[in-house]
């Protein structure tokens, strides 16, 4: 509230009391005389005279009390509301309050009264005129004193509204010299020779205020709630030397402002020479029908108790102290509270049904605090499919997202509505939302590829839904819900993308634009909506923006630069006018009709929700939800962790090890149901699935499946130890997923440099997850011994019956830092050919060529391509079905993969680490983020997670 301490009008009430009391005491004086007359007539009761005296004394007392009360009220009045500005110590005053000028003090009234022998008493009471609460235009008689009167009004108003009053002081004759202090006022319009231009600006401002704040419920700016008003200004327009110094146009404009301005907080005061005629015989009373003389009009100033005096400030010290104080005044931060907009009581949440529409109040306009609303779906047969938001930085865009998400989440249960929340490349706006029970996907620092995959996912979901509706003989989401949701309740889906230009980055094929157009034009009927935001509506890289925008009916704009508003295509002229008025954080213009001029836009203020409130609501929402919650969190800036692998979750949701048939079902299951989406899972081939990291889409997990087919080996190359060791150690730790320990063997050679941080990571996997089931060597010599026995096993299997052979355990030979195994470097032999000088090398080569068909798989890791080529020739390299490359030079990438893609993996910086998987059989590289080794603690956490899963199956 502005007038939270004392209401100026309270002096009016007090004065009324005094007036009544004085009148009563006067009556009491008359009464004895009347009664004496009655006594003389011999008809009075005997004690009448005594009663009369008592009444008289009582009324005298009441009058004295009322006067004392009035004096008290006057003494307690805030400084800007006191009778005389000159008597205030402005140096001490802190200019921290706004006192809303419904009335304005223009002088003082001296009330003098005396009762019997108690002597005279004088009280100085402020005299007010109705101001912004009226439609009046005021004048005072032009004369020597004009300047003092104007100054006093200006200083008074400025002191009442230190940061919400603006002044336009028009002084055509002296060209501004009459108001030398103008520049020192915090908010003013400087007036040059072109008076009508300034007046036109004011009229434009009036229209803007009418559109932004006023409607049938809120007719005057003074009635707009301060939290919505923000820093909008009340304005005083003074026309000195009126009318002689004004041309006809300016006079007409002034008259128009005088009649339309007061409701919009703009008041005109004329320094009037009433002897001067208006040009062309115009009538003052016609042009200014509401004109009132400040000091003369009886209706306004009932000087009916005492003597009246004008207030006047002449003392330059007072003037300087006020102006200095104003320059120190800081605009008060005003915010519309979130609790004014939405229901905060969790018990009353989730009462709405999303069948036809989802709607979220996000703020308010005028005096209502929750009438700005964003809605999607169908309302009165009107569709609203999708929305977009544009705002310059700092305009309050993030807060709008929060208000929108939480407002929706408080109204609809997770069964009715779910979110996909995507932060663009640099963003972490949605990082607290994994807690939200409605969040299906939360993606932070999202890469362009992932952003596009989210659109693809929604499009797939749309197709699945449409297919289901069709099979049921239903047309769309609404009819499905109306039919009682025969296949289970479907929520509406709301995709929100901040910095949505990410979708179109690095997108040579234009896939992002196509996906966007498809969703924009088709998804509403499936109950899928999107709300995307950026600093501008149109963003770079988007092809055919018109095809997209024509399907995005909801336009939301916040503060933008003037040039941007001018060039906007997404709003008509009326909307643009309103956007220009968004000068503060949180102000917003909303159109559900594509910004068209034909239907008015809503404008107002978004409610502010602070961090603490947001966290509290998220906590409450999460506590309220009793159902299952499977939010997928994707953080583009972080490496993935194996414990977050959703395919692994689905697999271990089974209480025991899967049977062969169950494995087939699991493998065939699509990604979005947590399966492997692999239709070639034949148990007879003894497939082993090993996950390597996270693909650049919502559900995909990067993996290799090693089967008993030719060349099912893997080569890992790149100089990031973190990534290679991470992938290798987690692969080792995953071996128990596929078979019991009797059904697989592992031989590890780790050539990590002793004492380095990498040494020990692989052995940790063996220790803590495999219970030392693997043979572990640190030298090739030791490893060779194992190789020899594997070779013997290989020879044995070659001679076996195929069915028996397929039953034999799988054998994994894992070599880390293979570039440090000198025995693997081929040398010229006596025939001048490149050959291994060691049997171990020969054995490895043999197994590479034929081993995997017999269940013997090689997994080798090198830190560079050059070392790979020293160990293997081109044909050997092609014998590894799976190749995983980390960032490398273009030349190496080409040599290793026949594409330059591995040279571009870290184009945006060192972190996160990306990798490329090439499956020779598929010929399409898959980019992913590998599981990395960073800290022992995290490594062990993940190992423990896996061990716990295996314990379940034991
Ligand atoms: N509706 C609002 N009412 C009052 N203050 C607000 C409102 N919205 C935001 N603010 C204030 O403005 C600050 C910036 O808001 P916000 O972070 O939402 O802006 P933004 O447009 O997202 O900025 P950026 O683009 O730089 O991230 C907030 O910290 C808050 O103090």
TrEMBL record:
Keyword annotations: ATP-binding, Nucleotide-binding
GO molecular function: ATP binding; DNA binding
Pfam families (alphabetical): FtsK_SpoIIIE (PF01580)
Protein's UniProt keywords contain Nucleotide-binding: yes
UniProt: ATP binding residues: 391-398
PROSITE patterns: FTSK
Classification via InterPro entries: FtsK/SpoIIIE/SftA, FtsK_dom, P-loop_NTPase
Stored SUPFAM superfamilies: P-loop containing nucleoside triphosphate hydrolases
KW Nucleotide-binding (keyword) present: yes
Domain of life: Bacteria
Domain FtsK, first and last residues per copy: 369-567
Listed name of the protein: DNA translocase FtsK
């Amino acid at each position: 509230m502005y007038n939270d301490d004392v209401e100026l009008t309270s002096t009016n009430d007090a004065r009324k009391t005094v007036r009544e009391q004085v009148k009563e005491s006067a009556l009491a004086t008359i009464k004895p005389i009347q009664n004496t007359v009655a006594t003389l007539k011999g008809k009075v009761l005997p004690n009448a005279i005594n009663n009369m005296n008592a009444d008289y004394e009582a009324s005298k007392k009441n009058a004295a009390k009322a006067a004392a009360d009035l004096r008290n009220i006057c003494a307690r009045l805030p400084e800007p509301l006191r009778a005389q500005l000159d008597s205030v110590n402005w140096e001490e005053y802190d200019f921290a309050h706004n006192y809303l000028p419904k009335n304005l003090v223009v002088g003082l009234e001296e009330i003098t009264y005396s009762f019997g022998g108690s002597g005279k008493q004088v009280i100085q009471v402020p005299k007010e005129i109705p101001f912004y609460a009226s439609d009046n235009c005021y004048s005072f008689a032009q004369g020597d004193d004009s300047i003092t009167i104007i100054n006093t009004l200006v200083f008074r108003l400025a002191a009442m509204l230190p940061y919400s009053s603006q002044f336009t002081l028009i002084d055509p004759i002296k060209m501004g010299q009459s108001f030398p202090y103008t520049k020192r006022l915090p908010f003013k319009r400087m007036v040059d020779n072109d008076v009508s231009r300034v007046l036109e600006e004011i009229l434009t401002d009036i229209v803007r205020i009418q559109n932004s704040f006023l409607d049938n419920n809120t007719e005057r700016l003074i009635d707009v709630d301060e939290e919505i008003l923000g820093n909008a200004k009340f304005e005083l327009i003074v026309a000195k030397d009126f009318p002689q110094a004004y041309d006809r146009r300016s006079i007409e404009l002034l008259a128009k402002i005088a009649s339309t301005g007061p409701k919009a907080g703009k008041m005109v005061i004329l320094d009037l020479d009433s002897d001067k005629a208006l040009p062309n015989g115009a009538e003052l009373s016609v042009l200014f029908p509401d004109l009132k003389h400040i000091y003369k009009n009886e209706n306004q100033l009932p000087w009916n108790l005492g003597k009246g005096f004008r207030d006047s400030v002449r003392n330059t010290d007072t003037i300087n102290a006020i102006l200095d104080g104003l320059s120190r005044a800081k605009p008060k931060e005003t915010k519309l509270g979130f609790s004014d907009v939405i229901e905060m009581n969790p018990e009353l949440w989730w009462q709405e049904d999303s069948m036809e529409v989802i709607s979220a109040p996000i703020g308010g306009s005028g005096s209502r605090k929750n009438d700005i609303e964003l809605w999607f779906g169908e309302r009165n047969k009107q569709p609203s499919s999708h929305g977009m938001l544009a705002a310059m930085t700092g305009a309050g865009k993030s807060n709008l997202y929060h208000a929108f998400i939480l407002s929706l989440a408080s109204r609809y249960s997770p069964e009715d509505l779910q979110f996909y929340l995507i932060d663009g490349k640099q963003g972490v706006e949605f990082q607290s939302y994994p807690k939200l029970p409605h969040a299906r996907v939360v993606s932070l620092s999202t890469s362009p590829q992932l952003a596009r995959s989210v659109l693809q996912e929604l499009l797939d979901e749309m197709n699945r839904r449409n297919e289901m509706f069709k099979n049921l003989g239903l047309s769309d989401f609404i009819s499905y819900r109306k039919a009682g949701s025969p296949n289970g309740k479907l929520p509406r889906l709301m995709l929100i993308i901040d910095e949505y230009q990410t979708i179109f980055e690095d997108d040579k094929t234009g896939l992002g634009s196509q996906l966007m157009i498809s969703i924009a034009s088709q998804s509403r009927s499936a109950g899928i909506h999107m709300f995307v935001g950026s600093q501008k509506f149109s963003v770079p890289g988007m092809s055919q923006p018109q095809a997209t925008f024509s399907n995005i009916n909801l336009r939301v704009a916040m503060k933008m630069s003037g040039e941007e508003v001018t060039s906007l295509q997404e709003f008509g002229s009326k909307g643009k006018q309103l956007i220009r008025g968004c000068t503060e954080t949180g102000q917003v213009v909303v159109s559900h009709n594509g910004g068209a001029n034909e239907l008015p836009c809503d404008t107002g203020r978004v409610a502010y929700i602070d961090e603490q409130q947001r966290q509290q609501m998220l906590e409450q929402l999460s506590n309220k939800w009793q159902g299952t919650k499977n939010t997928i969190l994707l953080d583009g800036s972080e490496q993935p962790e194996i414990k977050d692998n959703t395919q692994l979750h689905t697999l271990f949701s089974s209480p025991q090890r899967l049977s062969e048939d169950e494995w087939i079902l699991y493998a065939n299951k699509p990604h979005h149901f947590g399966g492997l989406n692999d239709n070639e899972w034949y148990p007879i081939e003894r497939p082993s699935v090993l996950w390597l990291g996270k693909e650049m889409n919502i559900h995909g997990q990067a993996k290799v499946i090693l089967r008993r087919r030719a060349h099912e080996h893997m080569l890992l190359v790149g100089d990031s130890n973190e990534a290679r060791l991470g992938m290798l150690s987690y692969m080792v730790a995953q071996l128990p997923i596929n078979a019991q320990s009797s059904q697989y063997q592992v031989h590890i050679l780790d050539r990590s440099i002793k004492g380095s941080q990498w040494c020990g990571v692989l052995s940790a996997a063996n220790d803590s997850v495999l219970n030392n089931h693997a043979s572990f060597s640190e030298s090739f010599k030791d490893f060779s011994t194992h190789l020899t026995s594997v070779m013997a096993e290989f020879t044995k299997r070659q001679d076996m019956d195929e069915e028996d052979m397929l039953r034999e355990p799988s054998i994994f030979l894992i070599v880390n830092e293979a570039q440090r195994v000198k025995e693997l470097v081929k040398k010229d032999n006596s025939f001048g050919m490149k050959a291994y000088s060691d049997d171990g090398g020969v054995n490895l080569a043999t197994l590479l060529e034929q081993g995997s068909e017999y269940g013997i798989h090689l997994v080798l890791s090198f830190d560079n391509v050059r070392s790979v080529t020293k160990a293997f020739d081109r044909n050997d390299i092609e014998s590894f079905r799976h190749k995983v490359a980390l960032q490398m030079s273009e030349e190496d990438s080409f040599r290793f993969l026949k594409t330059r893609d591995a040279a571009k993996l870290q184009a945006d910086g060192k972190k996160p680490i990306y990798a490329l998987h090439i499956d020779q059989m598929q010929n399409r590289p898959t980019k992913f983020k590998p599981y990395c080794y960073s800290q022992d603690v995290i490594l062990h956490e993940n190992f423990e997670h896996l061990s716990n899963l295996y314990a379940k199956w034991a």
